[in-house]
Design brief:
Length: 387
Amino acid sequence: RAVRNNPHAVIAVTGCAAEWAADQFRRMVKEAIVVGNGRKRELPALIAEVVRSKGDFPLLPGMQRPSDTPYVLPIASRERAVLKVQDGCNRHCAFCIIPRTRGKPYSRPMEEVLQEARALVAHGAKEIVLTGVILGWYGSDLPGRRKRLTALLKEMEAIDGLERIRLSSLDPRDLTEDLVEVMAGSRKICPHLHLCAQSGSDAVLRAMRRGYTAAEFAEWVRRFRAAIPHLSLTTDMLVGFPGETEEQFQETMAFARQMRFSAMHIFPFSARPGTPAATLPCQVPPATIERRAKQLGALARELSALYARRYIGKTASVLVERCDEATGVCEGLTNTYVRVVATGGAPAQGEIVNVTIQDWQVDHLTGEVTGERSSAGERSDRLFPRG
């Protein structure tokens, strides 16, 4: 599709798929740049070389290039910056190809991470999202226990100008009481936890090689919610894993209701060549997978609405990502990862504002900007008192 829509473009493919299916991509697009995870940092130079070889590279509609200046791409706003601190994985879940394509887990040195975080803030970032393949494992390979994820979070708290720190996906096996304490006591760490559940059935979790039970997952959720009132809890769910029965799928449905997820990312099972799950017997028929995904998706929308409607009539802290000066309509995220579309005033992109919430519309809250700048680290317990 990229080739059809952009016949003159340079097509580059990277990531895990480029590791295990490089020949397939090269057959699809003979001129494509296909590089694995280990060569991602070379992409700018590789693309530049192709551009130079093409001579006068065509411009996209609406773009201008003065003849006396080099061709550059526009830089996107960085009010929310993603900072990768860890890569690789050794968990070997039955459905996942990542351990084969990214190798053993490793952590970036803490000082290197902090240096990049400060640079992102200097560039205008108000929120930094920490990410990694197994983020909670961060620091396990660095000298001294103080290099763990919680130590990094404490150091990032001290960065002037950084107003929000968000954790991306976490594996339940990496949770600690220390993380509960650090998140609960922070004015900057977002009260939002994305825990990958994948299933609510213990039998399916065992077959997936996830290393925890539904009850263990629920116990960690209880601990976090006891410390952080009305925590926003999001998750990933994999539907149609080989051998998943209708009864086991209904266990997942019941588990999702029990956990009251504020959002769910739902993935229909797709066999990855080279993974144990690809050769398991009792593959679930595609039509059944599709039906179950739709059922779980409907529940996800129901639970999202239940969580988000608690904001109605309250004032939420919103990081503005887009704003239309002509209409005064702006859009952004609360620290609990709920999208808000608001009217009133014209806050600058990257500003954190207070919004009085009025309604919920399918996938976002609506409201009105109060005109007051929000303080850093707005806590969810200011919105939702305990109990």
